[in-house]
Automatic annotation (TrEMBL):
Source organism: Longimycelium tulufanense
Entry annotated with the keyword Secreted: no
UniProt gene name: trmU
EC number: 2.8.1.13
UniProt-annotated site: Interaction with tRNA, residues: H129, Q343
Native organism taxonomy: Bacteria, Bacillati, Actinomycetota, Actinomycetes, Pseudonocardiales
Annotated tRNA-specific 2-thiouridylase MnmA-like central domain residues: 209-275
The keyword Transferase is assigned to this record: yes
Protein name: tRNA-specific 2-thiouridylase MnmA
Gene3D superfamilies in the cross-refs: Adenine nucleotide alpha hydrolases-like domains, HUPs, Translation factors
Length: 367
């Protein structure tokens, strides 16, 4: 790629710092920006939980100083609250299980941030995501990274071709160990900084309490899916997700002595249906709001690999896009467990140089 103007999104972590460094080394004109996503950022991180703290902003600034690039902090807190946090709460209230990282990439980093970057004359937004991005026959090609354990193509699979045309992922061919070693060689203080985990706007990791504080009590019943027996009560379907085993609040074991799992959520009636693990098996997924990173939709049934979680949850499948119904139908050749409406299903074409993302859709139903 010839030299272009690049806006490097710098979270304060090692990945985005090295990504920015590589963009500088490639000869691009790079400006660093840290996104302030919280109206009241914490002063310090708690271990590896959360991000977007004051400490993170300072770490990003120090990295930019080492790289000798301009650095700014942009306030995206209001947009983040509306497009990510509010969406997260609303989805749980409706009995669905959203992925806020996917929504943040779609609505913030490659929509709000990208729009502002382009308006200011930048050609691309550079991030520290682990994914491979190239152009083949004039179309974007999004593929898995070299580091299977860190691959983030799943949370980028909902991006549209025009968003990917202005994206840059310099870490796609590297492993996490290589990135940390490079950070140390470059004198970046974040070389050994712990990765952030869990949901960034729930730094203590207590999702149930976070939702309860915003939605309040919405009492309902816990019901055995096989017998319709009422096993207990709960304070709201937002405290549960399909596949959950712990914290069900059931005071007696199943008749066969096996653990119970959440099988389905019914927000209108407030019912949480539970049952044995074998009833979690899913062989068909229906999706809507499909996106195609290359700009090319599936044409007829396609053999592929389906993924339903950021890490893991993969199975060989046959997928078909029904354009008249705006519906994606995925038949799994091997059953998957814990697949919930609201999650995303990403489709991959196996490739020795990194499985290629064919498309993504929001799961609306399973069977």
């Amino acid at each position: 790629m010839s030299a272009v103007r690049v806006l490097a999104a710098m979270s304060g972590g090692v990945d985005s710092a090295v990504a920015a460094a590589r963009a500088v080394e490639a000869g691009h004109e790079v400006v660093g920006v840290h996104l302030a996503l919280s109206a009241k950022p914490g002063t310090l991180r708690t271990g590896a939980r959360g991000c977007c703290t004051i400490e993170d902003a300072r770490d990003a600034r120090r990295a930019a100083d080492v790289l000798e690039i301009p650095f700014y902090v942009w306030d995206f807190a209001e947009r983040f609250t509306e497009d990510v946090v509010a969406d997260f709460v609303a989805e749980y209230a409706a009995g669905r299980t959203p992925n806020p990282c996917l929504r943040c990439n779609e609505k913030i980093k490659f929509a709000a941030l990208l729009d502002k970057a382009v308006a200011l004359g930048f050609d691309a937004v550079c991030t520290g995501h682990y994914a491979r991005l190239s152009v083949v026959d004039g179309r974007p090609r999004l593929a898995r990274s070299a580091d299977d354990g860190k691959d983030q193509s799943y949370v980028l699979a909902s991006l549209a071709p025009e968003q990917l045309r202005h994206a840059m992922f310099p870490l796609g061919d590297s492993t996490k160990a290589q990135v940390r070693a490079e950070a140390a060689r470059r004198g970046l203080q974040v070389a050994e900084k712990a990765d952030s985990h869990d949901i960034c706007f729930i730094p203590d990791g207590d999702t149930r309490r976070f939702l309860a504080n915003r939605l309040g009590p919405r009492p309902g019943k816990l019901v055995d899916d096989a017998t319709d027996e009422v096993l207990g009560e709960h304070d709201g379907v937002h405290g549960f997700t399909v596949g959950q085993r712990k914290g069900l609040g059931v005071d007696r074991p199943a008749a066969d002595g096996r653990p119970r799992y959440v099988l389905a959520l019914e927000p209108v009636s407030g019912t949480v249906r539970v049952g044995s693990a074998d009833r979690l098996a899913v062989t068909q997924i229906i999706g809507s709001r499909a996106t195609w990173p290359s700009g090319k939709a599936l044409d007829g049934p396609v053999e592929c690999v389906a993924q339903v979680r950021a890490h893991g949850g993969t199975a060989p499948a046959v997928a078909e896009w029904l354009p008249d119904e705006e519906r994606l139908v995925v038949q799994l050749r091997e059953p998957l467990r814990g697949v919930a409406p609201g999650q995303a299903v990403a489709l991959y074409c196996p490739d020795p140089d990194g499985d290629v993302v064919l498309g993504s859709a929001t799961i609306t139903a399973t069977s």
